[in-house]
Amino acid sequence: MESSSSDIKPKRKIWSYIVIVVVLAAVIGGVVYYYSTLPHPTKQVTITVAAPVYSSSATDWENFINNATKSWQAEHPNVKVEFIGPLGASSEGQYYTKLDLLTSSSSTAPTVMLEDMFYTATYQSEGILAPLNSYINSSFFNNIFPSALGQMTIGGIHYGLPAQVTDTLIYYNITLLQKAGVIPSDSTTWQPTNWTEIINAAKQINSTLVPNDPGLIPLNIYEGVKGDEASSFTGFEGLLYGTGYGLYNFTDHKWYGYSPGLNETFEFYKTVFGEGLATPALSATPYITAGQYMQEGKLAIDIDGSWMYGYQWAPGAQHPISNFSKYIGVAKIPTYSGQAPGFNTMVGGWGWAMYNGTPSSEKPLVASFMMALDNTSNQILINEPGQALAGGLPTAKNAVNNPNFSKLMPTDPSLDTFFTNILKYGSYRPPVATYPKVSYVLQEVMGYIVSDGYSVSKAASTYNSLLTSAVGASNVMSAITSYTPSFIADHRNFESSQYNYLLSLYLNTSLLFLSQIFW
């Protein structure tokens, strides 16, 4: 019996479908085979990196980034790494102004950016930073000190890889203090026990040495908007947190508009600048001019940061001082009246972060780049004298075991021990998104005291008013009684992992140095 045409058509359709499926399978299989086994063009990816050029040149940053990731780049020939500045920023404040502009658009935003760790909360709240937990294995995070990692972690989510920690202290010119009679001629040690002793030392230098040397500056402490975060962090807060008060109440989640501690700190600024013991000129170029004047013997006392040695005075730095400890002494910043715990230091540092607008398909690759950039060896490298972040300490727990670690340390074991010991007095900037606004208000009020002669009471009321405008009245409160700031470390806890690590780290380095001397 012959088949009808209606029976033949369905069979032809079935065979057509089978042929199509077979062809598609062959094509797909060929593509998979091509990309998995044969040489082929790879998608080109560009990773742009931003970092501050006010402390190092663009060439220095390019050299560091390329040297630090040389092996990684060799393994990823399809990736182009480009340093983009931002150029033209002469201070930390200008760096963030330019970085804010870059990150306002995905077309200009850097893939990876270096940020002062206090900025993490602000950028995270603005959606700029990418969470890293899914892209970086836990062992990498576990090798970073909690005190550093915590400054780039919000709600258990890591938004950056810390590259450096630093602290603040007092440097002094030994010869000048001897000549002024602040310390005996046969002594090199000066440790003020309260703020009054700092002021009295500056007054004594001013009355005995300045008449014969008008260019000599008794004291430096940074102030004003021109000093940016050097004014707030290195200067003002280094004193404020030694009063028993801080900037922020972590219980009520509000900023302090009024407090005795703020008034005491305003009074310090009023005294030293009002009586000509300090000059605003050094705040125009924070760290650099102070470093030069200490080298030249034109500055007697400098309230500054631990990074100054590597950044300014070490061999190969901008203003090297030979036999450093013979001429320059170091002291802890005392609390207001010498009350417990006796001293304070502000702990900060920098870390690498990823732009959240980075394509999802590229984030694992960028995270891999960041791990290479921030590995233990590169943390040491970036903090070495003459390098981009010279003068800081690595945040990796295993840094002490690295053979290059000894390159970080000054050639004076006693200085190593000093930097270790002051960490137990450390305070931290509040990791709150509005901190940069509060910092700017502080800078403004400092400027009003120094340049416009504001009284302490006028400075206090102005600060409260500007703070209220900056963060909103509902986020401001007054402090009636003293309190212990939440971000001051327990100074009695000598068992803390950070302290013990750094102690062993410095002792190991010091012993290594001594063994080289006596071997």
Q: Could you characterize what this model shows?
A:
- Keywords: Membrane, Transmembrane, Transmembrane helix.
- The structure is a single chain.
- With 519 residues, the protein is an alpha/beta fold.
- It has two domains: 45-166 and 348-407, D-Maltodextrin-Binding Protein, domain 2 (3-Layer(aba) Sandwich), CATH 3.40.190.10; 168-346 and 412-492, Periplasmic binding protein-like II (D-Maltodextrin-Binding Protein, domain 2).
- Helix content is 44%, strand content 13%.
- It is built from 20 helices and 17 strands.
- The chain has helices at residues 5-37, 58-68, 70-75, 92-103, 120-125, 138-142, 146-149, 174-179, 195-208, 229-240, 260-274, 288-296, 307-313, 324-327, 363-373, 376-383, 413-421, 435-452, 456-471, 497-518, and strands spanning 45-50, 79-83, 112-116, 153-154, 157-158, 161-162, 168-173, 217-220, 248-249, 254-258, 299-305, 328-331, 333-334, 343-346, 350-354, 426-427, 476-478.
- The strands form five sheets. Strands 2-1-3-15-6 form a five-stranded mixed β-sheet. Strands 8-11-7-12 form a four-stranded mixed β-sheet, sandwiched between helices.
- Helix 10 crosses helix 18 (435-452).
